[in-house]
Structures are given as C-alpha cells and as structure tokens.
Amino acid sequence: MKGINYLTIAILNYLAAIAFIVTVVISDHSNWKITYGFGFVGLLFAITGVANTINHFKKK
Length: 60
What we know:
The two termini are about 15 Å apart. The chain has 2 helices and no strands. By secondary structure, it is mainly alpha-helical. Keywords: Membrane, Transmembrane, Transmembrane helix.
C-alpha cells in the first residue's frame, strides 16, 4: 500500500503499549487472567511498534 506512514503507526503502537502496561501496573491484580491479558496485548503492541519502526527505516 502506497502512502503509509509507518512511523506514525509505530508511535501509535508504542502509545497503546504504554497504556496497556500502565493499566497492568495500576490494576489491583484481583483477576490474573485479565492482568496477564492486558500485559500480553501491551507486549504485542510493542512488538508491532518495533516492526513498524523497522519498516519505516527500510522504506526510507
């Protein structure tokens, strides 16, 4: 797809990852499935951010 700004998408992925990790930190850990789920989703957003950053520098 032409015209994709991978750096902007990477920044949004990093912000989403930070939001999910902050949610894990401030949660009361009463339900471990939800806590680990949010942590896993935060990790996936961080990995996707790294992939989009790599794509940005490859396309540049």
